[in-house]
Amino acid sequence: MKRNADLRLAAYFGPGDILPHCGELSRDEIVRKLVEDVYRSGSVPPVGIEESVKAVLDREQDGSTVIMDGLALPHARIAGLAEPRIAVATSERGVVWPGEESAVHVVFLLLIPQDKPALYLQILRALTTALKDDATLRTVAAMTNAGDIHRFFESGKAYLPRYITAADIMARDFLTLKDSDTLQTCVDTFIRHQVSEVAVLDRDGDLKGVVRAGELLRVCLPEYLLWMSDLSPIANFEPFAQVLENERRTWLSEILVKEFPVVSPDTPAVQVAGEMTRYKSSKCYVREGGKLVGIVRLPKFLNKIFRE
Amino acid sequence: MKFNPKILFLALVVLVVSLGGRACGLASNFTQTTTLAVFAGVIATTLFFWERRVAAAFIGVSVLIATHAMTLQSILKATELDIIFFLVGMMIVVGVLKDLGFLTWVIQSIINRRNMTGVSFTAILCVLSAVLASVVDEVSSIVVVLALVFQVCDMLKLRPHPFVLIAVMATNIGSSATMLGNPVGIFIGNKAGLTFAQFLVGATPVALASLCATLAITVFWFRKDIRAMTLAMARHRRMGLGPVLEIPYRTGLFILLATVSVIAFHHQIEHALALGGAENKNAFLIMTPLIVAGILMICRPSRARHYVEKDVEWWTLLFFMLLFAIAGSLNEQGITQNLADELTSHVKGGPKGMIPFVLVLASLGSAFVDNIVFVAAFTPVIQELVARSADYSVLWWALLFGACFGGNITVVGSTANIVASGLLEKHGHNPIRFGTWFRLGALVGLVTALIAWAMLTIFPSPRPASAEPVPEVQQAEPAELPSLNG
User: Fold this and answer.
1) What domain range is A295 assigned to?
2) How far is B33 from chain A (nearest CA, A)?
3) Is A242 within 8 Å of B242 when comparing Cβ atoms?
4) Taking residues B284-305, what's their average pLDDT?
5) Contact by Cβ (8 Å): B242, A242
6) What's the helix, strand, coil split of chain B in %, to 5?
7) Residue B244: its chain A contacts at CB < 8 A?
8) Which residues contact A252 (CB under 8 A, 6 or more apart)?
9) Domain check: are A201 and A300 in the same one?
10) Distance from CA of B246 to the nearest CA of A (A)
11) pLDDT per residue over A209-257, tens digit each?
């Protein structure tokens, strides 16, 4: 994807917003200090310091913001804020971060305007690209001078992408079934994992379709029964008994749905939203070279855009 | 945007028809040539760009008005609203039948049958397709019958394709048996001034004979698949073909029988109500589905909106209206009169000599464009011929059978074929290949056309009152009825 020269990460903070070697401070103390730094430099956010600190710590309570080993991204969405504000703290020895096993060496505090939903994800991507491995992270953490740290982000690869993509918001862990699996396996999977939709792969591992709980009901209740508005003649689930007898002989290849939302990893996130809306689906499958590489789930998507 | 070579074909068709029409004497001035070009353009669009047919019809109608080929009033008059009302009413009645479980019961009563074989299933499928198509309509019929085919084939793990083809062929043939079966039927019946009973007497024997021939051909053609079904059914005997259910059907059956019965006696009712004259031609035939639909919607108010919005194929009906209007322009511009002159001077042997000509033309035409398109185009020509001599009224039947039976030749030959292909794909199966369809379709089309030709030539066909030189007011005279059926 093309980088956007106007959206350099370093443009959102200066050397004055960097706190090198923050020493023995706790997470909450670091957050408070960084928020105070933000209020000291540049335009003052429309809410008070205490309110911002509380918003950041409340977000931490919902779940750790450590996005990769050694890097934390405490953040909050602030109503009325015009531009994102960033403050950075580093620690060569590491800060103990509640809920995390390993210590955090670089802390990026973000205050993001509430009306710019994608910004957090764009900054997240810029950061993970710039601090792509442990060695780079440790190099930044070892820097003693705020100017050096700022220059690192200014000269490195820390650009905000023009837009966030499916790859930024997709989950990489997912359940799959094979098209040679039976209906019995599928029903068992749905019940055991409490899911209502699973991707189906062929024997080469290529994504062939999905099976949905709704489609299973359709197998049990043939279309000609659903023509009736009153289903009392089948009140005792008689058609289900027939399917039960047949479930070991019914292959997923017979019932899988071939029309479902599917995108490539570099598809803009808004296009992903469009596909989910078009198919009235709560999932969008991310495929690369025929293989399933991730799934965008609607609740996670909404969380990333509106809340995180 | 990538250039689609079909656009070139479309332009070529329009050019050939327009210039050919001028060369043959069908069109002699600019307005007539434009009318021919618009008509050819819309027909060619249904052939090359099926999804854009309504858009083409919109533009076609506008061009006709803009070029003074038709006035706004004549366009509105030519939309055949009576036929559209009839179809709307019937679609709502069929929607209610589905809703009440009657059509489910039809499927269920076959699934519940024990000791079926491949041959008996095929015979039942053929008869059911034809009967349903003749009393509801071809599209509703194919949807119901294919639900049965998919249920049975899914259960037996068999390819549904042969049985889909059998069902479609029987549906197209059955749809010609009554005025209710096919939009073509009500269109021709209404244009010819035939009563429901006359139509039944004229069409059903030919449809029946053609159905028997089709059954024989398809049983032989698909003998291996039918044998495989017999074996699968024997293996599956213990499990059955689907859930054994008792579906209430009496209300639905009553509604259907009542509707068909009232339609069957529409002529007598029109006479009793003094609904005579050209203004009220087949008035009660058109009104009956509307009355029944109205009563049903009063009885089921919570579902009324659903019936109107979901069960009526508004897209198709809109296309029909515009198409009828465009076909009407051929008549308005005198093109059909010119064509009738050309036909009578070139096709020798009088009305009987023209039967095979119309049969072949209608069959081939309907094989490649929707049959209603062809019928709408050819109707004014036959009207013109009938106006010259009542003996030409036999051509109404040739047109009907050609259009319905010709629909079997290709996958795009009729709406039922297209719906069946769509359902096949929706159920995750590969579509039937053009060649596979064509080989069987051409054979069935040829045999059934020969049957229709023979029967129309040998047996006298009912002649509509409008074909007689007497004015249509006398159509309502009761003394006329026996001679009509002769």
Assistant:
1) 176-307
2) 45
3) yes
4) 94
5) yes
6) 80, 0, 20
7) 238
8) A177, A178, A179, A180, A181, A182, A183, A185, A186, A200, A211
9) yes
10) 6
11) 999 888 777 777 888 888 888 888 777 777 777 777 777 877 888 788 8
